[in-house]
Fold:
Amino acid sequence: MQFNTPTPGNPWPHDMVISVDDHPLSLNLLLFVRHAWSITPDVDIPALIPAPNPGASEMPVSASSEEWADRWHIAWERAWDWYNIQEPDRMKHPTQELMRQVLRPGQELHPLIPPLWTTEYDWDGLDSAAFNNWHNDLSPIPPSDAERRNLSDLIPAWESGLDTVIVLPYAGYFARRVTRRHLAVSAATRNDPATYGRALREAALS
Structure:
């Protein structure tokens, strides 16, 4: 979603465009893998709300649990590193030819296409239907007017370089300035004006 239209009585700057990614596929898929296979308990990740139903997911025996955990760690870091190179022009879209090239194992990060666990390992050991049900039905769905409700805090954050909010299915308060352009928050944080305002104020100062 993108927000750039002011409403009466709400002085949205005419040149401010904020994108909200409330279903980040790359990150949510990795959260599902971690939960379904019960790996990497050492990673500081809040509880998931709602917790995914893993369905028939089961860690493949083609590698040890330690090796799968190492692969997950690498993929998790790559998923976040991608935001450092993400193409800022939202009007640019990958061609089918580019997608075929990038969505092959072993490729470098590309500004237009976030890395996916399934590109490297397909759906081995994962119940794709269970993931899609969880990913598509994440609740509560963040409100579409959250940015307008917190406009006074959003503007300074935008002036500091913010143009994208990433919403994750985490419980409780969570806010992390990922890059100059990106702020990750929990759905619980964005759903509440007070905590979302706090996250935006902290982002403006970071």
About this structure: Strands lie at 2-3, 18-21, 164-168, 175-177, 182-186.
